[in-house]
Design brief:
Strand content: 15-25%
Helix content: 25-40%
Number of helices: 12
Distance between the termini: 27 Å
Strand order of the largest sheet: 7-8-9-10-11-12-13-14
Order of helices and strands: EEEEEHHHHEEHEHEHEHEHEHHEHEEEEE
Low-confidence stretches: 363-368
Structural class: alpha/beta
Mean pLDDT: 96
Shape: globular
Length: about 375
């Protein structure tokens, strides 16, 4: 029987190169916690609990009391994969970000103990698919957005996830300007719920007039306004992807019932971890929805965790695992090798165990 010997956490705050501005939030530094779980045999796993307040109801300072609660309840408890969801349901029912970090660390430890990768532990392949990611262009001054797109194109990225939703006219100018500066650009437009149905439909019409190559339109309207999203979905020849509107399987069922979208974005922090995201992804695929694997603003660790979910699903239609590349520094190594837009998960040696990520820095004390 495997038991948990310790759970610790400390702040994970890494500055971004550029402000990460979306319709509903602005981030200049990651606001996360690194969670470490040690099993009774000394095997240690790590997970990232990543907040993006107010998109997530938890902010960084909220994480540590929740980790303390999990420590009080889980240290000494028996843990195995099949019973993990119900165990965490009981301990962290209302804190999905913290739950994602704790669950990730437990899965990393269990996989390492078993001599396997997390994707294999979740039923995925030994040899994972190559994941080709987009790169995000936040809402910034027009010239900055264009320069970022040119720079990323030179590094091998062709697909740009452009944030919109604060100013429709400015958004259209930015999309048109990027298309002129990067003629072969492909776009994934993400409004983060910032538009009304009328505004979103106007963007769809103008994007067609500009002859933009659009792969999908993500969360175009106010979260959980399924009628508005359905109106946009009916007008689009490409997938409309629900993000903020789908955090649980129940939300996905409501989306399917309303025929509100043709895709769904999986995120560990909003759904409470890898297992919930995997269940949502599998259910969405069974119903013919396109699946995106995304994240909040996470480090290499969080992006690797998402990549293991995508690999366990056998690959996904849209990979949005780029935020580690937007950071000014990288406190981790391993997990994956980035070759331009391609993410190659490790398949050999210590880097193929668990998430295969090693933390390069540690403070002398952990938060509690």
């Amino acid at each position: 029987m495997t038991t948990i010997a310790s759970i610790e956490a400390e702040p994970l705050s890494v500055p971004l190169r550029e402000p990460f501005v979306i319709a509903s939030a602005t981030v200049t530094t990651t606001r996360a916690a690194l969670v470490r779980v040690t099993l009774d045999d000394g095997t240690m796993g790590i997970g990232e609990a990543a907040t993006l307040y107010p998109v997530t109801k938890e902010d960084q300072s909220d994480l540590f009391p929740y980790v303390a609660r999990s420590r009080a309840r889980l240290v000494g408890a028996a843990v195995e994969l099949a019973g993990l969801p119900s165990l965490l349901d009981d301990v962290l029912p209302d804190s999905p970000v913290t739950r994602a970090g704790v669950e990730g660390a437990i899965l990393d430890a269990l996989a390492r103990r078993a001599g396997r990768s997390v994707r294999e532990l979740l039923g995925g392949p030994v040899i994972p698919p190559v994941l080709v990611s987009d790169v995000t262009i936040p809402i910034l001054p027009l010239e900055t957005m264009c320069s970022l797109a040119e720079g990323w194109r030179a590094r091998g990225f062709q697909v740009f996830k452009v944030k919109v939703g604060k100013d429709l006219d400015a958004d259209l100018r930015a999309l048109g300007a990027i298309a002129k500066r990067v003629p072969d650009a492909r776009f994934r437009i993400d409004a983060n719920g910032g538009f009304s149905a009328r505004e979103a439909l106007h963007l769809v019409s103008e994007a067609k007039r500009l002859a933009l190559v659009i792969e999908c339109f993500e969360e175009p309207t106010t979260p959980f306004d399924l009628d508005a999203m359905a109106a946009v979905s009916r007008a689009c020849t490409y997938p409309v992807v629900a993000d903020e509107s789908v955090k649980t399987l129940a939300h996905l069922e409501s989306l399917l019932g309303a025929r509100a979208a043709t895709g769904v974005n999986l995120k560990l922090a909003k759904s409470g971890g890898l297992l919930a995201a995997l269940a949502i992804g599998r259910h969405a695929m069974r119903h013919g929805l396109s699946v995106m694997m995304g994240g909040m603003v996470e480090t290499r660790l969080g992006m690797t965790e998402g990549a293991h979910v995508a690999a366990a699903l056998g690959g996904v239609a849209f990979v949005d695992l780029d935020t580690a590349m937007l950071l000014a520094e990288d406190p981790f190594e391993g997990g994956y090798e980035a070759r331009g837009a391609e993410l190659h998960l490790a398949t050999r040696g210590a880097a193929a165990l668990g998430f295969g990520v090693r933390w390069l820095t540690s403070s002398s004390t952990s938060a509690s």
